[in-house]
Amino acid sequence: MSEINAGDTAWVLISAALVFIMTPALGFFYGGMVRSKNVLNIIMQSLFIAGMITVEWVLIGYTMAFGDDASGLIPGFVGSFEKLGLAGIGLNILDGGTIPEMAFVAFQCMFAILTPALIIGAFAERIKFAALVVFSLLWALLIYNPMAHMVWGGGVLAQLGALDFAGGLVIHILSGVSGLTICILLGKRRGYGKTAMLPHNMPMVVLGASLLWFGWFGFNAGSALSAGELAASAFVVTQAAAAAGLVGWVLTEWVRDGKPTVLGAASGCVAGLVAITPAAGYVEAIPAVIIGLVGGVICYYSVAVLKTKLGYDDSLDAFGVHGIGGTWGSIATGLWATTAINPDGADGLFYGSSDLLVAQLISTVVAYGLAIVGSYILYRIISAFMSVRVGAKAEVTGLDSAEHGQSAYINPLLGGSLLGGSMSNELGASSLKAETISPAFK
Description:
By secondary structure, the protein is mostly helical. It has two domains: about 5-385, Ammonium transporter fold (Orthogonal Bundle); about 410-440, no CATH class. About 60% of the residues lie in helices and about 0% in strands. It has 14 helices and no strands.
């Protein structure tokens, strides 16, 4: 009989808190990259998703993802409803673990929150808030929960032998590819390719990326579900891959474009983190550096080259970083995973077996298929009942004002307030020439 271990429980709960901070961090990361007239809108989307998906997870999400598959509605694809509303969990110990199941519920809840929040970067600055709310809820119910069950809940992909330590398949591929699908269906932003659409606040981007990096230690090392050797290993390889991703992205853009950028550094560390996520509990340190380095390089090219050639408007590069990075990480797991790190895993191609790589490739195709087909169907259903894209006037004015009646920045010369009015969302105090600002505002 397993017994609750206080150290393991404390680590998982702390890790859950670390993962939670990633959602508001994502709001800052994405918020800094949009134009000033849309920053509150993107932050509001992240915050509202955190609230809505928590309720969904407690009511039905957890049982769909981790309910008993044997009596499931669709065996192998979704869990049963035996734990609807967290019924029967109480103070039970997690099967085969050393923590209360409620700690696991909390930890997985944070994953469920973050995943739909990642998607919003692909179609930022042009989706109606109401449509985003409906899409995110249905996406969590009908796409995320079944995929989580298939991979982590004992479903068909787990039975196939696929490995996904902390969410390369379930989180990054699913969110990145879904984001790409919706951004193509919505169409490009007005003026895309003709008007500069630059990040409005780089310090905010760096703050968001830094908090994401910080929270990712809970994301990956917490997935060990115990405070032991596996958590320590996952922690180290997470740091190594993030650092290598940052270096890889910056060096590549430096050579190709002539200058290393702060945005490149922030994006590179996230790319490395995404790439190592599925492999964090299965690979050694040197492979982790390779995974992160390659992740930084290929994600840079997907953003700088692939997006331009194909012509889609992935606003904040959700697909370029999460979709591409998650794909590489899933495949890399099939190459470098070793039972020397995790006896419960499997050996990859470079350790004498091709079975895992085959399982990873099949699972990656399944994740792509579910994301594309599922997101397409949801979009068509939602668009039949409500308008999904904001109107031309709202897009020009900015979604902060049009959707929320507020502005992130007060223009002191115009007497603006946080409650909207006639204040221009394009102008903030920082955009005014220094000589035009009264000494009180300098």
